[in-house]
Amino acid sequence: QVQLVESGGGLVQAGGSLRLSCAASGRTFSNYVMGWFRQAPGKEREFVTASSGSGIYIRYADSVKGRFTISRDNAKNTVYLQMNSLKPEDTAVYYCAADRSFTVLTTTHGVEYWGQGTQVTVSS
């Protein structure tokens, strides 16, 4: 079992920044691909970004490229999401996710572990 706990959400004005953190416990952190998804009201959960265990392979959704950065500290069992130049359309509940497959983690289906989510609200 892997437990994921997100933190760092909140309210920010458009153009501002936030950093989300996700602390993992349970299994060997570096064996897992880690990622972030988000779900806005009335919409399906969507992929945001993912990082391979080593951090070498990273993928971003087109909507966040150039604004969001994923990073991980395997010594601290933590993955981060730095969000800059935030827009009102970034408003959503952000979920941390873990899976042993990079392919699986870039979709919402079959992901092995999820966090409880943290709310990010961007005001205009």
Describe the protein.
This protein is mainly beta and 124 residues long. Helix content is 3%, strand content 49%. It has one helix at 102-105; strands at residues 3-7, 10-13, 18-25, 33-39, 46-51, 58-60, 68-73, 78-83, 92-99, 113-114, 118-123. The strands form two sheets. Strands 2, 4, 5, 6, 9, 10 and 11 form a seven-stranded mixed sheet that branches. The chain is globular and about 40 Å long. The N and C termini lie far apart (40 Å).
Q: What does the secondary structure layout of this molecule look like, with pairings?
A:
Elements: E1 3-7, E2 10-13, E3 18-25, E4 33-39, E5 46-51, E6 58-60, E7 68-73, E8 78-83, E9 92-99, H1 102-105, E10 113-114, E11 118-123
Parallel strand pairs: 2-11
Antiparallel strand pairs: 1-3, 3-8, 4-5, 4-9, 5-6, 7-8, 9-10, 9-11
Question: Which properties best describe this structure?
Answer:
1 helix; 124 residues; seven-stranded mixed beta sheet; 11 strands; mainly beta; four-stranded antiparallel beta sheet; globular; single chain
Which stretches are poorly predicted, pLDDT < 50 over at least 5 residues?
none
| Count of helix runs | 1
What percent of the residues sit in helical stretches (DSSP H or I)? under 10%
What is the N-to-C succession of helices and strands? Answer: EEEEEEEEEHEE
Strand content: over 45%
Backbone shape: globular
CA-atom Rg in angstroms = 13 Å
In short:
The protein is mainly β and 124 residues long. 3% of the residues lie in helices and 49% in strands. Strand 7 and strand 8 form a beta hairpin.
